[in-house]
């Protein structure tokens, strides 16, 4: 039998957070003990509009939530500036963070990694919880050895705060691990309109599209002599992320450092 894991969710009214509330309450060995919201302090989840009828306390203050409810795990699905603070506060309170929130810089990741190591506590930051997206990233990394000219197009709904997406950044970082840095395109190319060639990480161009109607989509296009290879993933809804969130909650109980990327726990 699985050991019970007590969980706090930050961002319960959000598109991802509300899906996570559903997943946690439907998983027999998960127990939702509280939520952290940007409003509704002191209320019960059941009294918040559009939330399930649960007698779960709502906190606005993360440290107080952790001190009073002693969860095993925090699932954070908020926004970049909030997610990194919650991660630190969770570690300070001996709570293992599972962070889906994106928009972390390399410097943030380094600092948070050191913090988890110092405290010998498990933490997971996963830019994308969809198993198909993780495979897309790994396949792109494999293919980049053979077709090293690469551009990434990521497409998201128009409410997204960060650009490029965490997934696009992670994809480029995985490729950087195995591919020599290279200048792509014509050495003399120039942008007549600023941004026309997208953002750039280690020579890889990243283009971000934001439109209503989209959820989360990415194409990694690789070009070689007389051929292109496109590796593409689409999330049609937020339920697509939940098996990965569940996996991360279980995995974080068994690690004592920060893991960046779901590929490190599903291989
Ligand atoms: N790793 C993955 O697989 C995925 C990651 N994401 C990431 O998850 C994050 C959330 O995405 P999404 O659900 O679409 O965004 P939403 O805007 O729908 O939800 C974010 C929620 O966080 C709340 N929030 C803001 N500040 C705080 C705070 N201080 N404490 C608690 N809650 C707060 C917001 O409340 P209010 O509206 O009142 O500000 C809102 O309800 C983003 O960073 C996104 O990139 C998204 C999908 C998949
Ligand atoms: O904001 C989103 O929606 C998503 N964010 C993550 C990212 O930045 O990669 C994961 C997924 O793409 C959905």
Automatic annotation (TrEMBL):
Its EC number is 1.17.1.8. The keyword Cell membrane does not apply. Its main location: cytoplasm. Pfam families: DapB_C (PF05173), DapB_N (PF01113). It is found in: Cytoplasm. Keywords: Amino-acid biosynthesis, Cytoplasm, Diaminopimelate biosynthesis, Lysine biosynthesis, NAD, NADP, Oxidoreductase. GO terms for biological process: diaminopimelate biosynthetic process; lysine biosynthetic process via diaminopimelate. The active site is at 156 (proton donor/acceptor), 160 (proton donor). Signal peptide: none annotated. SUPFAM superfamilies: Glyceraldehyde-3-phosphate dehydrogenase-like, C-terminal domain, NAD(P)-binding Rossmann-fold domains. NAD(+) binds at residues 11-16, 100-102, 126-129. Residues 132-265 form the Dihydrodipicolinate reductase C-terminal domain. Residues 5-129 form the Dihydrodipicolinate reductase N-terminal domain. NADP(+) binds at residue 39. Pathway: Amino-acid biosynthesis; L-lysine biosynthesis via DAP pathway; (S)-tetrahydrodipicolinate from L-aspartate: step 4/4. (S)-2,3,4,5-tetrahydrodipicolinate binds at residues 157, 166-167. Homotetramer. This is 4-hydroxy-tetrahydrodipicolinate reductase. It comes from Fictibacillus solisalsi.
């Amino acid at each position: 039998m699985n050991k019970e894991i007590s969980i706090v969710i930050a961002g319960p009214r959000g598109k991802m957070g509300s899906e996570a509330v559903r997943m946690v309450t439907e998983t027999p060995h998960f127990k939702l003990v509280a939520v952290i919201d940007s409003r509704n302090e002191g209320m019960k989840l059941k009294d918040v509009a559009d939330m399930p009828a649960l007698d779960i306390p709502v906190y606005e203050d993360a440290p107080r939530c952790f001190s009073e409810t002693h969860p095993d795990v925090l699932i954070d699905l908020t926004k970049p500036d909030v997610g990194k603070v919650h991660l630190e506060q969770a570690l300070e309170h001996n709570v293992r963070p599972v962070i889906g929130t994106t928009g972390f810089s390399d410097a943030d990741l380094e600092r948070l990694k050191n913090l988890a190591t110092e405290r010998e506590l498990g933490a997971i930051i996963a830019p994308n919880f969809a198993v198909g997206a993780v495979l897309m990233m790994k396949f792109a990394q494999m293919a980049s050895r053979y077709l090293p000219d690469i551009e990434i197009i990521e497409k998201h709904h128009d409410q997204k705060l960060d650009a490029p997406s965490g997934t696009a950044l992670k994809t480029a970082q995985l490729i950087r691990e195995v591919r020599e840095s290279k200048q792509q395109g014509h050495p003399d190319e120039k942008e007549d309109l600023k941004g026309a060639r997208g953002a750039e990480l280690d020579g890889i161009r990243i283009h971000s599209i934001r439109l209503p109607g989209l959820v989360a989509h990415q194409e990694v296009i690789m070009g070689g002599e007389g051929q292109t290879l496109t590796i593409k993933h689409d999330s049609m809804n937020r339920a697509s992320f939940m098996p990965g969130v569940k996996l991360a909650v279980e995995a974080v109980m068994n690690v004592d450092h920060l893991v960046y990327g779901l590929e490190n726990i599903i291989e």
